[in-house]
Design goal:
About 70% of the residues lie in helices and about 0% in strands. It contains 30 helices and no strands. The chain is elongated. The termini are far apart.
């Protein structure tokens, strides 16, 4: 009785000097008071009002534990489990956890369950793990409730039951357990174990994010970025990406880099984009490695450095990232940042092409067509061009049509040529539009059809194709496929002449004497409009 009264007096006497309190605590501990021994151990472990001394903490925990005091038994188990103040010993940790767990001490029950789950100090036994964790969870221990939720979510020691996982996550989340809040948000986001509800997902993610859970910060950022369950807000997205990025989440670092690159939610800043791509790239994120390589290649946000570009393309390509493989092939083909090597170019083109990258399939087909880095092989060229063409790559469609026109690698077949030209032309590929018009003009592989000629040459002319502009001018001059119109003829010929076509210039000069001054004035005004509106479109030849 004396020992209990003494420690109680020490704990409640607010006027007692701190030194006197410590002396009283030590005296009570030496007299065998378990609460005093436990509290003194805690002080030594934390270095609170005494020099930190983990060995002494173990000593006093043991004194109380051997008298059956459950909190001390549990704490002594932790010291053995972690190797703090004593040699790490999982079997001893299990021993002390069990002593406390059998007295109903929730933290010990949880820790004992986790030892069974991991097979540390005891043979792994998922059923025993669940039994002990459940006992702690049913006492309201949030960590245990969270752990039991995980067990139900993964079917560890219990039958897989997402609804039960949601139930236990919720018990823990409502007590403020951040990891449970994040997992509950995930369940609402995916509709597993609960009706899908993006707004609820966002609410739970936010609670976890505000407690610093990096994955919740990332998930919340994605919701703001995509406008999924939350109104799209790029500034909020950037804020939460940054929180997660600063904790080392590679995807958050990548996405933050992307936002700086595009100026979404932040002021556009290529140097900051490079910074965050680099953070993610050094963690092995293949897309960030690729994006960083592009920045080095283009000298955007960092000095232009083809060798560094090659380095990061190679890192990304080695992880199977098809765009990086294709770009690395381009670097070898052009000799940028690395010695020119067509065989290496082919190697990397092939890696990307076999993954279905249309641009790489086109490039590989081109190497077979030219016999660079491989033996010249038109059949292989056709094979790879076809793979890209079937994916809708306009240049591949045009080139495949040209192979049919030439009978290279396939039997000559103008109907197939027209088919593939049409596919490319429909995507606005200028050369294909002009060529398809020419096929209709000649009746080659398709019916001769002046309406189709005019249609496709008009499409090409309006994209700046000089021969389409010249031929369209001639058709207007002759009234072929269109009503004769000298003004339109003069305007289109002038547009072609402005691009350097001597034939267009000569044809226009021959046409001019047949026109009235008013018609020429109108035509010149129209030709100015055409030259401004229908200049060549880069990349669409």
């Amino acid at each position: 009785m004396f020992r209990v009264l003494l420690i109680n007096l020490v704990l409640i006497a607010g006027t007692v000097h701190a030194g006197e309190e410590l002396d009283a605590l030590k005296s009570a501990a030496r007299l065998g008071n378990t609460v005093a021994q436990y509290n003194l151990a805690d002080r030594y472990r934390r270095g609170e009002a005494v020099p930190r001394d983990e060995a002494l903490a173990v000593h006093w925990y043991r004194q109380a534990a051997e008298q059956g005091y459950a909190p001390a038994q549990s704490s002594l188990g932790v010291m053995y489990d972690s190797g703090i103040g004593v040699a790490q010993d999982s079997a001893q940790a299990v021993h002390w956890y069990r002593q406390a767990a059998e007295q109903g001490y929730a933290w010990a029950q949880l820790n004992l369950g986790l030892m069974y789950a991991k097979g540390r100090g005891v043979p792994a036994d998922d059923a025993e793990a669940v039994r002990w964790v459940r006992q702690a969870a049913e006492q309201g221990a949030a960590e245990a409730q969270y752990s039991l939720g995980i067990m139900y979510a993964h079917g560890e020691g219990v039958e897989l039951d997402p609804a039960q996982a949601v139930y236990w996550y919720r018990q823990a989340a409502e007590q403020g357990n951040a990891e449970a809040q994040h997992n509950l948000g995930l369940m609402y986001s995916t509709g597993v174990g609960v009706s899908q509800d993006a707004a609820q997902a966002g609410d739970w993610y936010r609670q976890a994010a505000e407690q610093g859970v990096a994955q919740a910060q990332f998930s919340l950022a994605v919701m703001y970025h995509m406008g999924d369950g939350l109104s799209r807000d790029d500034a909020e997205a950037a804020h939460w990406y940054r929180q997660a990025a600063e904790q080392g989440v590679a995807l958050a670092q990548h996405n933050l880099g992307l936002m700086y690159s595009r100026g979404e939610g932040v002021t556009r800043d290529p140097a900051q984009a490079v910074h965050w791509y680099l953070e993610a790239a050094e963690q092995g994120d293949a897309i960030s490695q690729f994006n960083l390589a592009v920045m080095y290649q283009n000298g955007e946000g960092t000095p232009r450095d083809p060798a560094q570009a090659v380095h990061w393309y190679r890192r990304s390509a080695g992880q199977g990232h098809a765009p990086a493989q294709h770009h690395l092939g381009e670097m070898y083909r052009q000799g940028l940042g690395v010695a020119r090597d067509d065989s290496q170019a082919v190697h990397w083109y092939r890696q990307a092409a076999e993954q279905g990258a249309a641009q790489a399939q086109l490039s590989l087909g081109g190497m077979y067509t030219q016999g660079k880095g491989v033996d010249l092989d038109y059949e292989q060229a056709v094979y790879w061009l076809r793979q890209a063409a079937k994916q809708g790559h306009a240049l591949a469609q045009y080139n495949l049509g040209a192979m049919y026109a030439q009978g290279s690698g396939v039997p000559q077949d103008y109907s197939q040529t027209a088919h593939w030209y049409r596919q490319a032309a429909g995507q606005g590929f200028t050369v294909a539009q002009y060529s398809l018009g020419a096929m209709h003009a000649a009746g080659q592989g398709v019916a001769r059809d002046d309406d189709q000629v005019v249609y496709w040459w008009s499409q090409a002319a309006e994209r700046g194709h000089v021969w389409a502009q010249f031929n369209l001018g001639v058709m207007y001059a002759q009234g072929q496929g269109v009503p004769q119109d000298e003004v339109q003829a003069y305007a289109w010929l002038s547009a072609a002449a402005a691009q350097g076509s001597q034939q267009a210039m000569e044809f226009r000069e021959a046409l001019a004497p047949e026109m009235t001054p008013a018609a020429i004035s109108e035509a010149q005004e129209l030709s100015d409009t055409y030259r401004k509106a229908y200049s060549p479109v880069r990349g669409m030849q």
